[in-house]
Amino acid sequence: MKYRGQKVHPVGAWRLNLVRIMFVLMVAGLCWRLADIQVVNPEFLRHQGDARHLRQVPVVAHRGMILDRHGEPLAISTPVHSVWLNPQDVLATDPRLPKLAQLLGLSTQTIREKIEQNQSREFVYLKRRITPELSAKVKEIGIQGVALQREYKRYYPAGEVASHIVGFTNVDDIGQEGLELTYDAVLTGRPGLKRMVRDSRGNYVEGGELIHPAKSGENVQLSIDLRLQYLTYQALKKAVTEHHAKSGTAVILDTHTGEVLAMANQPSYNPNNRAGLKPSDLRNRAVTDLFEPGSTVKPFTVTSGIKSGQFDTTTIINTHPGYYRVSGHPIRDFRDYGEIDLATLIQKSSNVGASKIALALDPDKLWHDFASFGLGEATGAYFPGEAMGTMPDPQSWRTLDIATMGYGYGLSTSAMQLARAYTVLADGGILKPVTFIKTDKVPQGRREFSADIMHEVVQMMVKVIEPGGTATRAAVANYHVAGKTGTAKKAISGGYADKRYQSVFAGIIPASAPRLAMVVMIDEPQGEYYGGAVAAPVFAEVMTGAMRLLNIPPDDLPMTQMQVAHK
Predict the structure, then answer these.
(1) Are 288 and 352 part of one and the same domain?
(2) Residue span of the structural domain in which 158 resides
(3) For 394, which of 234, 290, 367, 535 could close a Cys bridge (C-beta 3.0–4.6 Å)?
(4) Alpha carbon 487 to chain centroid distance?
(5) Are strands 323-326 and 329-332 parallel, antiparallel or unpaired?
(6) Is residue 101 part of a domain?
């Protein structure tokens, strides 16, 4: 025990001084640390704070629109929200999760599994592209760590009418089919970047600093005329339904520019609701599906014959007795047409006459002339999955192969490729590339035949639509139509099906000053199957409306109407 007045033991004084020194050093250390943070190195804590409350958030770029030639929208992007969560901030036991799950159409267990299985991540999508009304309800729940992100959803105003042309994008707005895929790089914008502040609940505070802005994608204006597209789609759908056909396709080209003005397929699909779609529903049959064109190539055979100098408009071909044996194989006409000229050959669609012309020609030159119509090559449209068709090698042709080539068997083409071939007839022998993009000037093209030969053949094709021809139902009031029917047995493994046909009509209008070329193909119609009865009426229905919509003057007015017009 220590009494008052006693001296402190030297050891005790040393300990007291040690404590004092340690206390002073501690205070000095704290002061130094404070000075270091506030003055010498203030960025450290600021960086730590920013790391917890600042995020660089991508700014979604607006995808460009797809428009028809008159500016009508075919594909647009509308702003929507996507729901996401930060698994590190959301409690799997939060009592509000069932309500969130109900709003999003998910199970509570699904959300809890996302939280528990992604603890190392800070961003997990719950539901992409919800409606504005639904996003407002999600926001009202106010679960910490659950937030909304602005995105864009693709919408297609024309729906199934133009779906095979336009295509669609996936959930990340990347083109998957059609022209959405072809021009994806043009339509896709460049995302921006924004620095955003998060509050204590993990939600982003409005405002933020824009690091670099988003750049919207460019618009793409197509050559498609939405008015003609509707006409074509409706007429084709009606024909496929009435004839209980398996499928159908139709395409219209501008004969001067090679622009695709309309292209429709059946069956079709709704790009705004793709639930339950089969891969076959997505095929643009006008571009991807090949068929033997049948008698629609007889004008090409006649062209080759005239070009060779061995035939002309006065040449008579004997088709009696209505059939012709080649290598033991009978080639038959519908009936015995006897002695006919080239115009009658096309009008009556004589297989015997066409095969005799083909056999009289040099096989290499016949092949070259068919190729000059663009058969067996890409059209230049750059559509995804485009099929080029097949042109058999003339070096391997047998006599029968040459004969059947003359009336459209042994080769294959697509509807778009065949329509392009008919623009060569319509445009005086010039082969041009096909395009889905609107153009204001005529492409140069490549001359393949003389204009005189083309004019002669087109005039022969007019007789096909006149009384006595095979396509009287393709007639359009007050207009001359030049066309050709085709009815081909469907090729199957090992040969041809007995009762399965492909009905085709290819036509040009107006014949005196061609503006449009159209091909219609109906696959496996039931009952009637001739091209003149199944496909030709589609041409007539569409072109009757097209002539009015495009304000193309008539070239076949009755005399009384012409007199009134001149007065």
Answers:
(1) yes
(2) 54-87+152-222
(3) 367
(4) 28
(5) antiparallel
(6) no
Element (H, E) at 66: strand 66-67
Domain containing residue 78: CATH number: 3.90.1310.10
Longest CA–CA separation in the chain, Å: 153
Q: Same domain, yes or no, for 248 and 156?
A: no
End-to-end Cα distance, the chain = 142
pLDDT of the residue at 337: 96
DSSP string across 360-425 = HS-HHHHHHHHHHTTTTS--S---TT----B---GGG--HHHHHHHTTT-S-BB-HHHHHHHHHHH
**Amino acid letter, 390:** T
Q: Which amino acid is at 567?
A: K
Looking at 222, 239, 264, the residue that finishes a domain is: 222
Considering only 17-31, 391-405, 500-514, which range has the smallest mean pLDDT?
A: 17-31
Structure tokens at 409: 């068997």
The per-residue pLDDT for range 447-497, each reduced to its tens digit, is 999 999 999 999 999 999 999 999 999 999 999 999 999 999 888 877 788
Catalytic residue list: 295
Task: Indicate if 517 and 555 belong to the same structural domain.
Answer: yes
pLDDT value at 379 more than 90: yes
Whether residue 370 sits in one domain with residue 239: yes
Lowest mean pLDDT among 51-55, 335-339, 347-351, 387-391: 51-55
Has residue 172 been placed in a domain? yes
